Amino acid sequence: MISGDLIIFTLLLVTTINFSRYVTSLRALLFLMREAHPLLYQQVDGGSFFTAHGNVYKQARLFHYLKHKEYSEHHDSGFVAKCDKVRELFVVSCALLLVTLFVTLVVI
């Protein structure tokens, strides 16, 4: 029989790997955004997005941009594909985090 500790460890591992994929894709999106959409890059403070002094309100601007799929009318298909990927990875990461927390609470 599989122990609860093994299930929690496995879920934490999968969640961590998926979250790192999300952060890496977000970094790639910001790099691509610098050329494809410079105005948005400035609005979300792309240069200091991942620093300690990054502006949370500007980061939330990118979240809302992706949430409402404002990128769907953009002319660069590579940029649109990267936005879709980041959006999907964010949704999966949040779902995995919720499942991991739920399972942890149930097992403990």
TrEMBL record:
**Pfam families, alphabetically?**
UspB
What InterPro entries does this protein's entry cite? Universal_stress_protein_B
Q: How does it sit in the membrane?
A: Multi-pass membrane protein
Q: Which residues cross the membrane?
A: 6-24, 89-107
State if Oxidoreductase is listed as a keyword: no
Which residue stretches, if any, does this entry annotate as coiled coil? none
Keyword Transmembrane helix part of the UniProt annotation: yes
Q: What is its main location?
A: membrane
For this UniProt record, give its keywords in alphabetical order, as a comma-separated list. Cell inner membrane, Cell membrane, Membrane, Transmembrane, Transmembrane helix
**Where would you find this protein in the cell?**
Cell inner membrane
Q: Which family does it belong to?
A: Belongs to the universal stress protein B family.
NCBIfam families given in the database record: PRK04960.1 (NF003435)
> This protein is called what?
Universal stress protein B
Native source organism of the sequence = Vibrio ulleungensis
Q: What is the lineage of its organism?
A: Bacteria, Pseudomonadati, Pseudomonadota, Gammaproteobacteria, Vibrionales
Q: Which gene encodes it?
A: uspB
